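User: Here's a chain of 387 residues. Predict its fold as C-alpha cells.
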Amino acid sequence: MKRGLVGVFGFMAAAIVTARALSLPVREKPVRDMVGGAEADDKMPTHSRTSQGAEPHDQDNQLPARPRTSRDVIQRGVALGMFAEDVSFSYAPLLGEIAELGASHVALVIPLYQAHAGSTTLFLHTRLSPTLEEIADTIRDARRLGLEVTLFPIVRLLAPRTPNEWRGRLQPTDRDAWFRSYGQLLGDLASLGNLTGASRLVVGSELSTLDGDITQWDKLLTFVRAVYSGTLVYSANWDHYRYAQVFDLVDEIGVTAYFSLRDPKQPSDVPTLVSSWRRLRRQLESDLARYDKPFLFTEVGYRSRAGATAAPWDETGGGSSDPGEQQRGFEAFRQVFTDPLGTRGRLDGIYVWNWYGYGGPQTTSYTPRGKPAATTVRQLLSDLERP
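Assistant: Prediction complete.
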C-alpha cells in the first residue's frame, strides 16, 4: 500500500460528510474517460516511487507545521505541473530541484477536465490527472523539503469544438450544474489540502466568463471554507483581471503575467522589455489599489523560443528555440520587481511557470530547467526575499 492511503480515505470521508451537510452532490466514485490528450510542455523520464524507495508511514506525522499567512514574507514560488501520465511517477526529484533553486513555495498544478466549453461535468482524468493519493504524497514530499504548498487546479478541455475554446471562454449549458460539479472537485482538494497542510488553494484560474458570477462563487467558497482553513486565491487572466469580481471573496488576488512586452517587430533586448514591465507595473498597481489584499503573480513564464516575449501566452507548439529570449524575459521582470532599495510595491509573491518537463536549451517549452533562464530565476527568487 502506498503511503498516504489511509489519509486519503479519511479526507474523502470528511469531504462527503461536509458536502452532504451543505446539500451538495457527492462524487464517491471516480469518473472515467476514454479520450486523452494533455497540454504538458515536455514528457518526463519516469521517477518511480517504488524505485526511489517508499518512506515509512510514521514519517507522515513528522511534517512541519503549516505557516500562517503573512504579508511580511513574500511567496518566492515555482509552479510544478502534475502532468505525468505514469501513475508510478514521483515528483520528489523535481521538488528537490525547486527547493535547491531557492524557492520558498511550490504551486502543484492539478489538471481538471471537461469535454468542451459547453460541458457541465468536470473530473480528474484517469490518465491525464493525478490521483488524490498522488497529490497527498506530493504535498508531503514538498513540505518535508520546507516548501509551502499551493494547490493550483486548472480546467482543461478534452475535446474543444473550436480552436478558440479554452477555460477562459467556458459557456456551460447549465451554470448551476457546472458550479456543482466544479465544487465537488474543489471540495475534495480543499479537504485533502487541509489534512496534508497545504497553505493555499487557488479556487479558480483564468475562468474569465465565470469569475463575475458572485452568487455562484459565494456559495462555492462558503462550502470550501467549511472544509479548508488555509488561504484562498483566485488567479485572473492577464487581460481580464480588472473584471474578476470574485477577487472580493478571496484572501489573495492573483494575476497571470502573460502580458505582451513588445511588438513582434521590436527587438527583444532587456531595455525594451524593462520599459514595458515598468509601464505594466504602474498600471497594475493603479488598477488593484482598491483591494487591501496580498497581490501575487500566479504565473510568470516565457517559452524558450523566438517571439516568446511578444506573445507569452502562446502555448501552441512549434517555433524555433531561443533560450536567450526566455532568459531576457525573466531578467526584465527581475529588474522591475526587485531593486537595490527593495521597493517592491504591492507584490506579495510570484510563481514561475513551470518547472515540469525535460528542459534543455534545444526545447521550446516554458520550463527553465537546463536553460540560461534557470540562473536568472535563481537570482530573482533570491532578490525577492524580504529581510
